[in-house]
Amino acid sequence: MRCPFCPAEETQVKDSRPTEDNAAIRRRRFCTSCDARFTTFERVQLREMTVIKKDGEKEVFDRDKLQRSMKVALRKRPIEDEVIEKVTNIIVRELEALGEGEISTTTIGEHALSNLRKLDTVAYIRYVSVYKDFNSTSDFVDFVDTLKN
């Protein structure tokens, strides 16, 4: 594996262990050229998924993009990174279980919302505000009112 710190092509694995939820292998590596240390993760990918955006454009599903959007919604909330990792794994497994090679952004958003709602109400509302494209405070008020009922 290429070193992320220097142009060296060779690195060595110092330690391998499964992640807490056994969904990936965590590997500690070091570069034989610059002695830098870094971590990589190895995950099972059941199938290559393609995302169909609202404008019809297609792109390869990016697990990290999903996780970043979850982290944005959960910013400054009392949720640890390990929990975000687990929830991301759950969403990816749900999407893979659909058995479809092409998945709409709507489907991905619905699965993210469903899992965020169970995890943290504030993060859920933040995610919905972007997902549903809230434009004014009245959009928020209307949505929170529906949550109360």
Describe the fold and architecture.
- With 149 residues, the chain is α+β, with helices and mostly antiparallel strands.
- It is built from five helices and six strands, in the order E-E-E-E-E-H-H-E-H-H-H.
- The protein has helices at 63-73, 81-97, 105-119, 121-131, 137-148, and strands at residues 11-18, 24-31, 37-43, 50-52, 58-60, 102-104.
- A hairpin with a 5-residue loop joins strand 2 (24-31) and strand 3.
- Helix 1 packs across helix 4.
- The longest helix has 17 residues, at 81-97.
- It is elongated, with a radius of gyration of 19 Å.
- The model has no long low-confidence stretch (mean pLDDT 90).
Structure keywords:
elongated; alpha+beta; three-stranded antiparallel beta sheet; 149 residues; three-stranded mixed beta sheet; 44% helix; 5 helices
Query: Regions with pLDDT < 50 over 5+ consecutive residues?
Result: none
Average pLDDT score: 90
| Alpha-carbon Rg, integer | 19 Å
Order of helices and strands: EEEEEHHEHHH
Strand content: 15-25%
Gross morphology: elongated
Please report the distance between the alpha carbons of the first and last residues: 53 Å
Can I get a quick summary?
The protein is built from five helices and six strands, in the order βββββααβααα. It has helices at residues 63-73, 81-97, 105-119, 121-131, 137-148; strands at 11-18, 24-31, 37-43, 50-52, 58-60, 102-104.
Helices, strands, pairings?
Layout: E1 11-18, E2 24-31, E3 37-43, E4 50-52, E5 58-60, H1 63-73, H2 81-97, E6 102-104, H3 105-119, H4 121-131, H5 137-148
Parallel strand pairs: 4-6
Antiparallel strand pairs: 1-2, 2-3, 4-5
Helix pairs in contact: 1-2, 1-4, 2-3, 3-4
